Request: fold
Amino acid sequence: MEREPRPAKWQSPQRFRYWTLIGIIALIVIAGMNVYELDRRRTDLNARVEQLANVIGIRLVNSRSPSVNAGPDQTKVYTVRTEGAPSLGPQTAPIRIAEFSDFQCEYCARVGLTLTQIREVYKDEVQIVWKNLPLTSIHKNAMGAALASQAAYNQGKFWEFHDKLFANQDKLDVDSLKQYAAELGLNTTQFETDFQSSDVKKHIGADIGEAESLGITGTPTFFINGHMLVGSQPFSNFAELINAELQRLNIPIPPAAAAD
Reply:
């Protein structure tokens, strides 16, 4: 049976443009859905990374940076410069713990009790070295605190100032830093001069540059004889690495550490 031919308007170029427009709109809708889904997944991944950081006790430099997923290389022994840095314990100690830290980081404050326990248990077998890593993108007073601590170091009172800063993390503005210097009996004129000196700024900058070269992504980050340990870890995790190093060096492990 023959059919009547369709009206000419359905065979015109307008029909082609109509369906082309429909196709373009469909592609735009699909692309939009894909972008939304990718953004949703990215947001979910960032939330999981930040949740994990909270669990292990680390303040991330940038929680959206892909490098935070890499984690420390447990098989690598890193070299950390410690000469001229504030330290506790003898220079001859067989175990050296270098700590990259930030005075405004709550996890850095939290791990302080663990470091005190380490010194009590291992005594002269351990030296703890401070390295500055102020996370200026998220802590507006971190750099000032780092500069002030180095100014205090120049007068031989770094650790007293260190304790004062961690005890007052919510008050690290410049006026408070000057007040702490006076309370600790520092020469305030010298303190203010050093606080603004190029030498102190270079020292802090060198620590930050070294942290970047080591691939550090957050604070606190520790190096136990070069072995990286990230976050506000419990004593047992430190002891595992310390004891392994003592065994390697044929040094007896303190009973308190062996029993933990």
User: Anything to note?
Assistant: The two ends are 95 Å apart (CA to CA). Strands lie at 59-60, 87-88, 95-101, 126-132, 218-219, 221-224, 227-230. Residues 76 and 183 are 43 Å apart (CA to CA). The chain has two domains: 11-56, 68-259.
